[in-house]
UniProtKB/TrEMBL annotation:
Similarity comment: family membership: Belongs to the cytochrome P450 family.
Lineage: Eukaryota, Viridiplantae, Streptophyta, Embryophyta, Tracheophyta
Name under which the protein is recorded: Allene oxide synthase
Keywords annotated in UniProt: Fatty acid biosynthesis, Fatty acid metabolism, Iron, Lipid biosynthesis, Lipid metabolism, Lyase, Metal-binding, Oxylipin biosynthesis
Segments traversing the membrane: none
Domain of life the protein comes from: Eukaryota
UniProt source species: Rehmannia glutinosa (Chinese foxglove)
ATP-binding listed as a keyword: no
Pfam families per record: p450 (PF00067)
Length: 541
């Protein structure tokens, strides 16, 4: 069918980031160096971006990753343990445990212990009066979790943020792509538009990343020189927003009316979506009594949102032209471009980058020098250019990115509603799910499942190197699907999956071509880690 072949070509096209045209030069200060102790490491070849887009094997279906059909299963069917408590009181009690009495990890761990099961019933926040049905079946192991990706079994309509749906007044009156199920006609059109955006601008990604993040590191260096330390978060937000605007739209926000206000406006707007789920450190009567109980009125953010909308509308003409060809209105397309760029992309980078810096920073000087050696050697072998081919020759760096995404997936919660009755299997038992039941997965428990990963709680930089390492990539599911799978118009896997992996790799490349090592301090924050850089040791070889 013509329509479906054009869909599939678009859905693979975006994955091709040119290895020739997009390159950045090694800074003149970087000197040649000898030897690479990592040369013996095998290449990781399993990511889709590195394979030719023709003759790809079909990605594994979610069904193939989940439990075998119950008929073939030897596991006993067990009643799902746990209960929801009394109306209003049960959800309120679970919310207090989740946010305050126990905290998120202990909330889940203690219930696994109590029920002796990684599948059980509970309420998820926020509950009344924001969500009136907070009852879920929780999946907390790597075997049951991929059920959430199986579109034959589950529906993903209006549950991007969980058991409540933020007001569409926050998004121009539209339900944006993230809230649409693949069965809804607009899902394919809008996802095609995102694939178009990524493919149309792909040659700009590497040069713009280099330019925005070189600027970030220069500003950190200056701040460290004067104050002895520099916050990574605010600088990263500015760099990420500029990078996205420049690489996706060819527009530098600083040359427009938006100026440097983008990150601040987006953070406020995202808060209007997510406040029911965040611990902001405010007095409990305000935080829990108000922000976890009632939705903030969207009119309070209308003016700020309009400023963002104007920026996107004025700078996305070719993409909006394409949207019309796909049968979308310019207005709906623009609200979706804003959402994908600001919520999905900026929001994701705001969490992923500090988290990755935290894990790599904590891993210490030996990993830093191994990375610097590998990265600089590969760039040198590529004539001093950062190209896709050069990145291919950095197996340790690539493994470190996957390990960061495994140990702390940036978006930790996923929801899906059962379309029909079916059986879910954990490692120990099988459970009957009824049509209409809400399933919830807390992803870090699935990607730190000790039955799948050795030393699951540890950051193991070399974990994904070599053939055995590659086999584990199917259990890395930060993108709402397996790392060896691909986003399509028929699934809910992150449209920016390969873009994100590339951007994370480019961060490490930029860092270790400039510095031999670095030191950080880490504190908690409502979204991701708060990282302060206390030293950057300039490249000495
Ligand atoms: C670190 C950055 C990112 C992270 C962690 C991330 C994560 C995710 C996750 C977990 C989902 C699925 C949510 C769910 O349905 O439960 C998702 C969906 C999505 N992401 Fe990303 N994402 C990131 C960056 C991006 C980028 C750069 C794009 C740009 C195109 C993008 C576009 C989308 C879209 C359009 C969807 C909805 C897909 C659909 O409805 O089929 N994301 N993302």
């Amino acid at each position: 069918m013509a329509a479906s072949s054009s869909l599939s070509s678009l859905s693979t096209l975006h994955l091709q980031f040119s290895s020739q045209t997009s390159s950045t030069k090694l800074p003149a200060s970087s000197k040649p160096f000898k030897g690479n102790s990592l040369a013996a490491h095998q290449k990781i070849t399993a990511t889709i971006s590195e394979k030719p887009h023709i003759s790809q094997p079909p990605p594994p279906s979610a069904a193939a990753l989940t439990a075998a059909p119950s008929k073939a299963s030897k596991l006993p069917i067990r009643k799902i343990p746990g209960d929801y408590g009394l109306p209003l009181i049960g959800p309120w009690k679970d919310r207090q445990d989740y946010f305050y009495n126990q905290g998120r990890d202990e909330f889940f761990k203690s219930r696994i212990q109590k029920y002796q099961s990684t599948v059980f019933r509970t309420n998820m926040p926020p509950g009344p009066f924001i969500s009136f049905n907070p009852n879920v079946v929780v999946l907390l192991d790597g075997k049951s979790f991929p059920t959430l990706f199986d579109n034959d079994k589950v529906e993903k309509k209006d549950l991007f943020t969980g058991t409540y749906m933020p007001s569409v007044d926050l998004t121009g009156g539209y339900r944006t792509l993230s809230f649409l199920d693949p069965a809804e006609p607009s899902h394919a059109k809008l996802k095609k538009l995102m694939f178009f955006l990524l493919s149309y601008r792909r040659d700009h990604v590497m040069p713009e990343f280099h330019s925005c993040y070189a600027e970030l590191f220069e500003s950190l260096e200056k701040e460290i020189a004067t104050k002895g330390k520099a916050g990574f978060g605010p600088a990263n937000e500015q760099a990420a927003f500029n990078f996205l605007a420049r690489s996706f739209y060819g527009a530098d926000p600083n040359d427009t009316k938006l100026g440097s206000d983008g990150p601040k406006l987006v953070t406020k707007w995202v808060l209007f979506h997510l406040h029911p789920l965040l611990v902001l450190g405010l007095p409990r009567p305000i935080e829990d009594g108000i922000l976890h109980t009632f939705p903030l009125p969207p009119f309070l953010i209308k003016k700020d949102y309009q400023r963002l909308y104007d920026f996107f509308y004025q700078n996305s003409t070719p993409v909006l032209d394409q949207a019309e060809k796909l049968g979308l209105s310019r207005d709906e397309a623009c609200h979706n471009l804003l959402f994908t760029t600001c919520f999905n992309s900026f929001g994701g980078m705001k969490i992923l980058f500090p988290n990755m810096l935290k894990w790599v920073g904590r891993a210490g000087a030996k990993l830093h020098s191994d990375l610097a050696l590998e990265i600089r050697s590969a760039i040198k072998s590529n004539g001093g250019n950062v190209t896709m081919a050069a990145i291919e020759a950095m197996p340790l760096m690539k493994s470190v990115v996957y390990e960061s995404l495994r140990i702390e997936p940036p978006v930790s919660s996923q929801y899906a509603k059962a379309k029909r009755d079916f059986v879910v299997e954990s490692h120990d038992a099988a459970f009957q799910i009824k049509e209409g039941e809400m399933l919830y997965g807390f992803q870090p428990f699935a990607t730190k499942d000790p039955k799948i990963f050795d030393r699951a709680e540890e950051f193991v930089p070399t974990r994904f190197i070599g053939e055995e390492g590659e086999k584990l990539l199917k259990h890395v599911v930060w993108s709402n699907g397996p790392e060896n799978g691909a986003p399509t118009v028929n699934n809910k896997q992150c449209a920016g999956k390969d873009f994100v992996v590339l951007a994370a790799r480019l961060l490490l490349v930029e860092l270790f071509r400039r510095y031999d090592s670095f030191d950080i301090e880490v504190a908690a924050s409502p979204l991701g880690a708060s990282v302060t850089v206390t030293s950057l040791k300039r490249a000495s070889f």
